[in-house]
Amino acid sequence: MKDSVLALYRSAVTMGEEWGPARVTAPCLVFWGTLDPAWRVESGEKPPASLGAPEAMRLDCDHWPLLQEPAAVTAAIETHWQSQAGPVG
Q1: pTM of the model
Q2: How confident is the model over 18-69, as pLDDT tens digits?
Q3: Fewer CB atoms inside 10 Å of the end CB: C or N, the chain?
Q4: Burial degree of 2 (CB within 10 A; 0-12, 13-18, 19+)
Q5: Alpha-carbon torsion (76, 77, 82, 84), positive or negative
Q6: 57 φ, ψ to 5°?
Q7: In 3D, which of 75, 25, 70, 14 has the Cα closest to residue 51?
Q8: Nearest CA to 30 among 66, 56, 69, 62?
Q9: Per-residue DSSP letters for 64-85?
């Protein structure tokens, strides 16, 4: 899997730009590792805007925020779900 994903990434002439905007209608969150050696933290500003999400949640980790900062990610997801929940019953 890792080799396949890396081959896909490395085949891109201009990484990410040729993938186009996402067509997402559900409320979104974007997590970004401020220490990511592959993607500068400034790159994290474009995806939230194209998804209609609030700004990226910046975490002190590298490329794997969900694995490296699970408590912070979990708390953000729970808060996000609560903010999107409609009336119960």
Answers
A1: 0.66
A2: 656 667 778 888 888 889 887 777 766 777 777 777 778 889 999 889 999 9
A3: C
A4: exposed
A5: positive
A6: -80, 115
A7: 25
A8: 56
A9: -HHHHSHHHHHHHHHHHHHHH-
Helix residue ranges, H only, the chain: 2-11, 46-51, 65-68, 70-84
Residue 26 corresponds to which amino acid? A
Residues 24 and 22: their CA atoms lie apart, in Å, by 6
Residue 33 pairs in a beta bridge with: 59
Residues in the chain: 89
Residue type at 60?
Answer: D
Residue 29 has, within 13 A of its CA and on its CB side, a CA count of 19
If 0-12 CB within 10 Å is exposed, 13-18 middle and 19+ buried, where does residue 9 land?
exposed
Separation in Å, CA 4 to CA 1, 8, 13, 35, 54: 5, 6, 17, 24, 31
Query: In terms of Cα–Cα distance, which of 29, 9, 25 is closest to 76?
Result: 29
